[in-house]
């Protein structure tokens, strides 16, 4: 049985597709302790991004206990959007971003077990916006806790095309 694949949203460019979804890339706040991205050869390593929007953390708690699955999916999409913002800082244009690998951390109850569904929301956003350049290798894991008690953190490796 094959599963339906997420589809790219209509639009000539990744930026247009992002706008069609009603989204825009956020401005990432600076940090004295780390950078949002680091290029090593042709790979661009994106630091773990939390679900911030306009400088505000959008949620706190443990998925499967304090946070519902649908809320966690929305938070994962916001974290992925922040990763895209860091990638664009690195390569200069959203149409030049290709996602290689995504690592999704989900602060979850020990019996939750649906971390991959949380990660699917972020994967779907990447494919909707970037098309084939958004398809990636992925790991989704449950953890006991994350910074600032956030439910989701996403780290990526990408490259410029």
From TrEMBL:
It comes from the Bacteria. InterPro entries: Endoribo_LPSP/chorism_mut-like, RutC-like_sf. Gene3D superfamilies: RutC-like. It holds the Pfam family YjgF_endoribonc. Residues 17-150 form the Endoribonuclease L-PSP/chorismate mutase-like domain. PANTHER family: ENDORIBONUCLEASE L-PSP_CHORISMATE MUTASE-LIKE DOMAIN-CONTAINING PROTEIN, ENDORIBONUCLEASE-RELATED. This is RidA family protein. It comes from Streptomyces tibetensis.
